[in-house]
């Protein structure tokens, strides 16, 4: 028994297989979970080999024929050796030198090596597998018909890997209008797609080879991008140039996250229907997985851009309004709106010198200007000559550009900004960004011109208030010094001259 066991161990190279398994086992401890999982099958096969060796020795000592068990021991040994070699080569050695082999190649190579091992075992047992296949036309035909789909899938998977027409990580669809998903793995039989709905689609490789496949975002020599289109409808009587300009400013000035700069977004006038004109925003996604959330954000920007411009989405011509729009109702809404405007004017300290009638005149000139959260109301350096009054929401005041940009203040309901641009025409000294949805009123130069011309004395008080606010901003920027009062007076006189010049006021008046 001892002699037979010794020869089985030595002649069958069991010692070398066990030694190789021990080395690989120590290496996979520092490898990936996939490598450790791949070593389980060789471990089981090697264990079966050792058990069979012991059985052969025991049966031989009892005087029985051990041919069958010896063949089984050899089969387990060779298959275990193939498994250990596979883990060592494909899951330890090649990854450490930066070579990534597709899983389907690993499976095919392992299957071929295992088949060769079994043929060798058959020859040792005196059974020729190749002779049986080549001499039996019936068996060959049966195997061919039975494995045609399997072989088709196998060859399809290999072809996909070799020509890189579809790669792991690609977003694909099985034809226009068909389910789409991201390729997570290409196996010898199928390709797995994970959808945005957390579903996995198993597609036989032969289908990918025979049918049409759409690969999203791939263009030769270009980054991965996917074009999206958002349609919206406006009353056909609105000039198209106005709609296009409004939406371009709303989309291009401060782009939505995940909207690519190149290719540049587009705003297009597509068509005219029975009661509305059809427009669209086309843009390119940087992250293909985040499609619907980005579309939603673009729709929000379109909505608020149109709302600020006094434009609304179109209503089908057959819509019937049943609300009784009486004179009393219109008067009530007008009084409520006028009260809101007067409240906003009353919170602006620049307008403190105005009388009641003058405040009413200013309130009548205000324009409702809403902004969506995340939009830039104005940029540092802009020339827009407007004053903004916040009715609802919160905005951040930021100075600087790029990495040096920092927040210096927060504005809330009842506050205002842009007074220097309104009164002197100077560029914006800071950027203002909507932190939440904002309701604002806007007052421009032309609306305020007649009031200042009618009472030039107002400019003295306004200049004083502006000088104080400028000094406060200079302090935030770190430019304040000890001669504050002298500088305030100098700034006041400078501003007074600039205001009079900006509004073309006569100094002797």
Kindly describe this structure.
With 509 residues, this protein is an alpha+beta fold. The protein folds into four domains: 2-146; 162-216, Roll (SH3 type barrels); 226-308, Alpha-Beta Plaits (2-Layer Sandwich), CATH 3.30.70.100; 328-502, Sandwich (Jelly Rolls), CATH 2.60.120.10. Helices cover 51% and strands 17% of the residues. The chain has helices at residues 2-11, 14-28, 33-38, 40-61, 67-96, 103-124, 129-135, 137-146, 148-163, 205-210, 240-252, 292-308, 327-346, 356-365, 419-424, 445-454, 458-476, 484-502; strands at residues 171-173, 180-186, 190-194, 200-204, 214-216, 226-234, 266-272, 277-285, 367-371, 376-378, 386-392, 395-399, 406-411, 416-417, 431-434, 438-444. The strands form four sheets. The protein has a five-stranded antiparallel beta sheet with strand order 4-3-2-1-5. A hairpin with a 6-residue loop joins β1 (171-173) and β2. α2 (14-28) packs parallel to α5. The longest helix is centred in the first third of the chain and has 30 residues, at 67-96. Mean pLDDT is 79; it is low at 141-147.
Main CATH class of the largest domain: Mainly Beta
Q: Give the strand order, joined by hyphens, for the main sheet.
A: 4-3-2-1-5
Distance between the termini: 127 Å
Shape: elongated
């Amino acid at each position: 028994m001892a002699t037979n066991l010794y020869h089985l161990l030595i002649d069958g190279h069991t010692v070398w297989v066990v030694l190789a398994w021990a080395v690989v086992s120590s290496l996979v401890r520092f490898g990936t979970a996939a490598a450790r999982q791949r070593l389980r099958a060789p471990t089981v096969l090697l264990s079966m080999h050792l058990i069979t060796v012991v059985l052969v020795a025991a049966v031989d000592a009892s005087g029985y024929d051990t041919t069958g068990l010896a063949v089984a021991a050899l089969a387990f040994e060779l298959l275990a050796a193939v498994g250990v070699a596979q883990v060592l080569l494909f899951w330890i050695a090649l990854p450490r030198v930066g070579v990534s082999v597709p899983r389907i190649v690993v499976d095919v190579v392992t299957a071929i090596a295992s088949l060769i091992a079994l043929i060798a075992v058959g020859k040792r047992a005196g059974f020729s597998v190749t002779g049986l296949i080549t001499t039996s036309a019936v068996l060959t035909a049966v195997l061919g018909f039975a494995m045609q789909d399997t072989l088709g899938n196998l060859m399809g998977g290999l072809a996909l890997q070799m020509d890189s027409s579809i790669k792991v990580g690609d977003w694909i669809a099985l034809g226009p209008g068909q389910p789409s998903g991201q390729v997570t793995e290409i196996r010898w039989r199928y390709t797995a797609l994970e959808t945005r709905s957390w579903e996995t689609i198993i597609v036989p490789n032969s289908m990918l080879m025979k049918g049409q496949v759409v690969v999203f975002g791939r263009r030769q020599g270009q980054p991965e991008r996917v074009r999206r289109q958002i349609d919206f409808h406006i009353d056909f009587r609105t000039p198209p140039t106005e709609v296009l300009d409004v939406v371009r400013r709303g989309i291009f000035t401060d782009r939505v996250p995940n909207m690519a700069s190149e290719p540049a977004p587009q705003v297009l006038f597509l068509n005219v229907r029975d009661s509305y004109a059809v427009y669209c925003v086309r843009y390119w996604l940087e992250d293909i997985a985040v499609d619907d959330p980005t579309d939603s954000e673009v729709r929000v920007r379109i909505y608020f851009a149109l709302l600020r411009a006094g434009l609304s989405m179109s209503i089908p011509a057959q819509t019937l309004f049943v609300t009784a729009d009486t004179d009393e109702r219109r008067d009530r809404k007008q009084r409520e709106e006028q009260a809101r405007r007067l409240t906003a004017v009353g919170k602006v300290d620049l307008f403190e010198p105005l009388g009641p009638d003058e405040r009413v005149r200013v309130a009548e000139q205000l324009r409702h200007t809403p902004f969506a959260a995340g939009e830039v109301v104005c940029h540092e350096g802009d020339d827009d000559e407007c004053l903004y009054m916040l009715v609802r929401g919160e905005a951040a005041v930021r100075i600087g550009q790029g990495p040096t940009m920092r927040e210096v203040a927060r504005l809330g309901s009842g506050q205002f900004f842009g007074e220097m641009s309104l009164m002197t025409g100077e560029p914006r000294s800071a950027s203002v960004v909507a932190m939440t949805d904002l309701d604002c009123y806007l007052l421009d130069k032309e609306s305020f011109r007649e009031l200042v011309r009618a009472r030039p004395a107002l400019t003295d008080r306004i200049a004083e208030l502006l000088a104080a606010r400028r000094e406060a901003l200079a302090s935030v920027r770190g430019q304040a010094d000890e001669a504050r009062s002298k500088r305030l007076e100098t700034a006041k006189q400078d501003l007074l001259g600039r205001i009079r010049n900006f509004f073309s006021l006569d100094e002797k008046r």
